[in-house]
Amino acid sequence: MASHTVTFPITDPQEILKLRAGDEVTVQGHIIGIRDRTQIRIFDQGVPPPMDLSGAFLLHTAPNVRKLGPGKYEKICIGTTTSARMVRFTEGLGAQYGVRAICGKGGFPDEAIEPMQRLGMVYFAIVGGAAALETTQIEEIEEVLWEELMPECLWKFRVKDFGPLTVGIDAHGNSLYHDVQAAAQEKLKELYARL
Which pLDDT score is estimated for 55? Predict the structure, then answer.
């Protein structure tokens, strides 16, 4: 396991290729908050996102915020939501919009492995229930678009030392989630054989 610091959005795809499943990553720069309704608008309704997602890190979230004025929000609690239900958007995010990293709770199923490898993407695992810590690592909410989808808008967060995160799926076809499931299935076979 190696430790990395990565600044997003990235401009050099080689930065993603350095990351291996199990590595620890701390993120600097900007991350984009996104969730189900946002991606449904982009892919199911065919509305292009109003911000550049090239080289982006997407965080599956619908944050708790306080409105300060037009387009201006203060963070209260910014946590993550379960990713698996949004796996169907992975290929489009990478192929059409150049997204390079996705992060959320619970991981992605095996169907994400091939497109992430082909498109040079990674999935970062984050500890569920760590919203209080994550919120302190977000310095500012810089931009909010599609406010009518509140709280499932597009959020641009400036972050410092966000993480540590674990590379759950890398751009080389490795997945910690797959490995754990395979090991669990083998263990089940052993247990059944003893019955």
Answer: 98
Residues 170 and 15: beta-carbon distance below 8 Å: no
Q: Percent of the chain at pLDDT above 90?
A: 79
- Classify residue 132 by burial, with Cβ atoms within 10 Å: 0-12, 13-18, 19+: exposed
- Ordered by where they begin, the domains of the chain are 3-194 (3.20.130.10)
- 40: Cβ–Cβ under 8 A, 6 or more apart, which residues? none
Q: Which tokens go with 105?
A: 């709770």
Q: pLDDT tens for residues 69-125?
A: 988 999 999 989 899 999 999 999 999 999 999 999 888 999 999 999 999 999 999
Q: Which of 58-67, 144-153, 173-182 has the lowest mean pLDDT?
A: 173-182
SS3 content of the chain, % helix, strand, coil (to 5): 35, 35, 30
DSSP state of 85: G
AA letter at 29: G
* Residue that is written with structure tokens 């795809």 in the block: 13
Q: What is the DSSP string of 29-53?
A: EEEEEE-HHHHIIIIIS----SS--
Query: Is the full-model pTM beyond 0.70?
Result: yes
